[in-house]
């Protein structure tokens, strides 16, 4: 009799069709669920606001990560050694924007991090978010940019007073590995096309070497379509017909320009996730340029958009092999954007950073 009574609630659930199944997506190895340490660099300007947003959401989800926080600022001459040691120990870092002084010969700490940790691939995912109106629809572009060489790497010197020489170095080794990363990404993520962005019609040797490397790697991935586009035409095509692009692979400087253009088309830099990855380490941050890092008004009013870094932290969770937590976070953020009640000013709303964070936490499954 007791058995029958216990079975009744289950029978009612089955009849109502409410039984939820949880598919087994992968078998974790013993110990994979242990909390993982992550180096956290809040950074400058809006950085502490948006990194704090991530901390709150991670705590609300009970995500299996904990942060080792370090105070780093863009006007420092070098990244402190203890910070580098922490990233090398933890393998993963989450960071806010670091303000880079204009001119004056001060080296960018962002570039220092990329070179010191050999974070050779920068990835920015530029896609439309449901409910966020944009000029173009069906935009879903992944910009993969070589991160360690080219004219963006800052190799400059003054030859004589009034004459500055800036070096653009392109190597076969770096070009091949970024091309391989782009095709691997496309293959593993069921992407159909890789487009190499270049200016080989003018820089025949440097960009020519980059293209040659991309073509060689493309032959090893016959299932993925490969094409090439000159960077100036690329920018024009992006603003007129962005839906034609899938995965884009670029040298260093072009990638910075192309990623920001694609981000603006797909909804703005405040919603685009990204990261920098190498063979051993990964640093996750806002995908497109954190141009608002120095806008004091946003900092004072506490109205910075946390969406980009929240989505970047979801990428980080997936990188750490916590896919269910990543899915929960992404779903919550997209539901908040879709409903439209809580949006910061850059997305047409009047919400504060904290109001968006509270809304995301409320939507967590």
UniProtKB/TrEMBL annotation:
GO CC, alphabetical: mitochondrion
Cited SMART domains: Iso_dh
UniProt KW keywords: Magnesium, Manganese, Metal-binding, Mitochondrion, NAD, Oxidoreductase, Transit peptide, Tricarboxylic acid cycle
GO molecular function (one): isocitrate dehydrogenase (NAD+) activity
UniProt-listed GO biological process terms: isocitrate metabolic process; tricarboxylic acid cycle
Domain Isopropylmalate dehydrogenase-like, chain residue ranges per copy: 37-360
Chief site of localization: mitochondrion
Protein location: Mitochondrion
Keyword NAD: yes
Domain of life of the native organism: Eukaryota
Gene3D superfamilies: Isopropylmalate Dehydrogenase
Pfam families: Iso_dh
Summary of the function given for this chain in its UniProt record: Performs an essential role in the oxidative function of the citric acid cycle.
UniProt family annotation: Belongs to the isocitrate and isopropylmalate dehydrogenases family.
PANTHER family: DECARBOXYLATING DEHYDROGENASES-ISOCITRATE, ISOPROPYLMALATE, TARTRATE (PTHR11835), ISOCITRATE DEHYDROGENASE [NAD] REGULATORY SUBUNIT 1, MITOCHONDRIAL-LIKE ISOFORM X1 (PTHR11835:SF64)
NCBIfam families xref list: mito_nad_idh (TIGR00175)
Protein name according to UniProt: Isopropylmalate dehydrogenase-like domain-containing protein
């Amino acid at each position: 009799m007791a058995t029958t009574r216990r079975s009744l609630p289950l029978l009612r659930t089955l009849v109502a069709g409410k039984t939820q199944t949880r598919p087994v997506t992968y078998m974790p190895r013993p110990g994979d669920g242990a909390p993982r340490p992550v180096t956290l660099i809040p950074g400058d300007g809006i950085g502490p606001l948006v990194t704090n947003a991530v901390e709150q959401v991670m705590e609300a989800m009970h995500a299996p990560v904990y942060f080792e926080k370090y105070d780093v600022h863009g006007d420092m001459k070098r990244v402190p050694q203890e910070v580098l040691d922490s990233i090398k120990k933890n393998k993963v870092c989450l960071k806010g924007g670091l303000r880079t002084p204009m001119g004056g010969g001060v080296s960018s700490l962002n570039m220092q991090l990329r070179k010191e940790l050999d974070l050779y691939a920068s990835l920015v995912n530029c896609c439309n978010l449901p409910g966020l109106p944009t000029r173009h629809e069906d935009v879903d572009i992944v910009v993969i940019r070589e991160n360690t060489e080219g004219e963006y790497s800052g190799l400059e010197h003054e030859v004589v007073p009034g004459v500055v020489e800036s070096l653009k170095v392109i190597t076969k080794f770096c070009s091949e590995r970024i091309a391989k990363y782009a095709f691997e990404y496309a293959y593993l993520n069921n992407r159909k096309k890789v487009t190499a962005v270049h200016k080989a019609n003018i820089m025949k040797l440097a960009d020519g070497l980059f293209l040659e490397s991309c073509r060689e790697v493309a032959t090893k991935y016959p299932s993925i379509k490969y094409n090439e586009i000159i960077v100036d035409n690329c920018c024009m095509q992006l603003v007129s017909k962005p839906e034609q692009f899938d995965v884009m692979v670029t040298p260093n400087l072009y990638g910075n320009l192309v990623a920001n253009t694609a981000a603006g088309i797909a909804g703005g830099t405040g919603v685009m996730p990204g990261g920098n990855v190498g063979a051993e380490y990964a640093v996750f941050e806002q995908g497109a340029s954190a141009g608002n890092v120095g806008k004091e008004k946003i900092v004072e009013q506490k109205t910075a958009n946390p969406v980009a870094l929240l989505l970047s932290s979801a990428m980080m969770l997936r990188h750490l092999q916590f896919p269910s937590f990543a899915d929960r976070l992404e779903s919550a953020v997209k539901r908040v954007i879709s409903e439209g009640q809580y949006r910061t000013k850059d997305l047409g709303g009047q919400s504060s950073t904290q109001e968006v964070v509270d809304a995301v936490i409320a939507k967590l499954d």
